[in-house]
Amino acid sequence: MAAPRYRTPPSELVRLGERLLPRLPGDALAEVRQRAWRRFLAAGIPTPRVEDWKYSRIDALMAQPFAAPTATAPAAGTVRRAMAGGPAARRLVFANGRLVAGQSHVGGLPDGMRVMGLAEAIQHRPQEVAAAFEALPAPGPFSDLNTALAADGAWIELNPGVRPEVSLQLVFVAVGEPSAVITHPRVVVRLGAGARLHLLESHVAEGEGHVLTNLVAQLQLAEEAALVHERLQAAEGGHALVGRTVVELSAGARLLANVATLGGAFVRNELEVHLRGEGGEALMNGLYLPRGREQVDTLVRVHHHAGRCHSDQFYKGVVDEQARAAFAGRITVHEGAQDTDAYQQNRNLLLSDEAEVDAKPELEIFADEVRCSHGATVGGLEEAGLFYLRTRGLGRAQAEALLTYAFAGEVVARFRDGKLARQVRQGILARVPGGAALDPEGLVA
Amino acid sequence: MAMLDIEGLHVAVGGKEIIRGLDLAVEAGEVHAIMGPNGSGKSTLAHVLAGREDYEVTAGRVRFLGQDLLELEPEERAALGLFLAMQYPVEIPGVSNTYFLRQAVNALRKARGEPEMKPAEFMKRLREAARQVGIREELLRRDLNAGFSGGEKKRNEILQLAMLEPKLAILDETDSGLDIDALKAVAAAVNALRTPERAFLLITHYQRLLNFIVPDRVHVMVDGRIVRSGGKDLALELEERGYEPFLQEAA
Ligand SMILES: Nc1ncnc2c1ncn2[C@@H]1O[C@H](COP(=O)(O)OP(=O)(O)OP(=O)(O)O)[C@@H](O)[C@H]1O
Ligand SMILES: [Mg+2]
Asked: Chain A: nearest CA to B90, how far in angstroms?
């Protein structure tokens, strides 16, 4: 008999879910949650025989004896170090998926902008939350698990034309607990026509532990709305993140989605973009630097449903030691989406013989007036560059560290928030071999 | 003893012998020019002297300031005082020109047991040198050579030369692709750097450069060997007659 494509969910995970499910708030959601839960049980956990999970090794991760999180608040210093978005930025802080009101600050927002924890949204507008949950396209096992068990997260709404001057930051702190924990935060963002938002999402860790964050973000952009979404995953150690972001863009809407993955035992960044109206734009940049035994998956799906849209994916990775990285990027140009511009680039630097990179670019084109290009490379440092730097007196190790840093830095140059970019640059210096010995003055702007 | 002393050098690239028995001696304070047809091995010689690892020295020896040059790593050669202005400078996106130069200056100082240069002092010298070779401030902030025009790259090599103050500078076709003003600026910068302790090896195709930087010796390189050496007038002779007579001699 052929090996199964999905595995039965581990019993610990099922027992935890069955215990939590009836206790979750919001009667209006019960139905949606139950359906998602049943789908999850029926499907199970994907194995590498499922195409989208071909390079992922998640058996050990999912078999952990998960308990419900109990952490209440992270240390003030943890939050302070994670802060980005400028001094006036508004912030929601989560400890193992739960909103920490005392450390959050979303007061004084402009009229027509509402920011609240998801628990509060469930309390005050359960029907809308249920509808949003239901609207998530093509849910897979992890999304279903999230829909079934999401207890908290962020609910963000901007009326048409609202353009706050300040950035909004979501800080997810993975707080080490005695047992492994799994959390299911849900983020819903709705931008009215012409509204604008700069949303930062930081994942950091406090203490040793095994926190699996199973995040789903649904971002909806009405006509001419613009969203900058920047994610920094810096929760190192035994922590893991499975993040699925789904973006819907109406005509003329613009998205800039940046992600930097600096740590974590297993990180999966799924980004699904639907360009549904003419003249939409989606710029996506990503950087991953796994080392040790870390694994980073990047899965990007860009759908051009309407014509005259522009999409550009630019992802780079530096993979060291026994780490693994997978990049699967697909551009689908649907029928009738004429005059489409769609680009994709994936470049990887492999620093060790034991490291692994799997790159899988895909194009599906069902329209005829289309400008598309894609390319993937996996290689080592350029000898010509190394030689050039060494003839100027830089030692081999310094030259290698500098070139590796520069390779990664090209992605950071596309980040919008200065503070977040600085955090990423510091993280790169800490991660690349020999980076700690480089002079940061002039490198970390 | 000569500052640079090359004896019976043979170099193979990709299994093919490119330098085939080359002798050359350069004294401190001298300027030598090497001319020769395309593919004769001029850049190969320059890269071997700078320490390129994929070029295989099959015979011969090179002494530089009394040391066996071929034993040294590229960065050790730089610390000893060797500099190569490349024919095709490499683009390094992601590292600013200024940052790179500061690291290079300090790496050399560290290797020589000197303290790092103070940032203010470095910036002052950098601005001065940039003005001298005609490099705009904007280029100092840009990434190293990335998107620089051909001429800007060449000027940037001379900027590095001025900042790194080597004992022997090899200029591999620095004059190619320069407009006349750039050529004059580069020549002026080089002439300003001429001292009794410093030597230059100019690889060029054009007599014109040698009107501005007058050489002590001119060598003709054909097929991996120096086939003729003479004074500055040899360059004029080459300009007039081309390499044809030498090609026949070599054959
Ligand atoms: N990797 C290689 N494999 C084989 N041959 C090579 C390789 N690299 C260079 N060569 C050859 O070595 C010869 C010398 O090249 P070199 O660049 O030193 O010439 P040059 O004198 O500097 O020429 P130019 O005046 O055009 O700059 C050329 O014939 C070139 O094709
Ligand atoms: Mg050459």
From this structure: 6
**Whole-prediction pTM:** 0.94
Determine phi and psi for B89, rounding to 5 degrees. -60, 145
Work out how many domains chain B is built from and give that number: 1
> What's the CA gap between B181 and B172, in Å, rounded?
19
CA of B47 to the centre of ligand 1 (A): 11
Query: Average pLDDT for residues B119-137, to the nearest whole number?
Result: 94
pLDDT surpassing 90 at residue B225: yes
User: Could you read off the pLDDT of A78-101 as tens digits, one per residue?
Assistant: 999 999 999 999 999 999 999 999
| Mean pLDDT score of chain A | 96
A296: confidence class by pLDDT, cuts 50, 70, 90: very high
Q: Which residues of B touch A387 (CB under 8 A)?
A: 50-53, 74, 90
Q: Which of B13, B86, B221 to mutate to test the pocket of ligand 1 (most atoms within 8 A of CB)?
A: B13
Chain B environment of A398 (Cβ under 8 Å): 103, 107
Q: With CA atoms as reference, report the closest residue to B192 among B169, B173, B172, B175.
A: B169
pLDDT at A72 over 90: no
Q: Among B9, B43, B170, name the best residue to mutate to test ligand 1's pocket (greatest count of ligand atoms within 8 A of Cβ).
A: B43
**Domain of B136: which CATH number?**
3.40.50.300
pLDDT, average across residues A254-281: 97
The amino acid sitting at A153 is: G
Contact A265, A292 (CB under 8 A): no
Domain ranges of chain A: 6-276, 383-445
Task: Answer yes or no: are the C-beta atoms of A325 and A356 closer than 8 Å.
Answer: yes
Domain that holds residue B154: 4-250
From the CA of B54, give the closest atom in ligand 1.
1
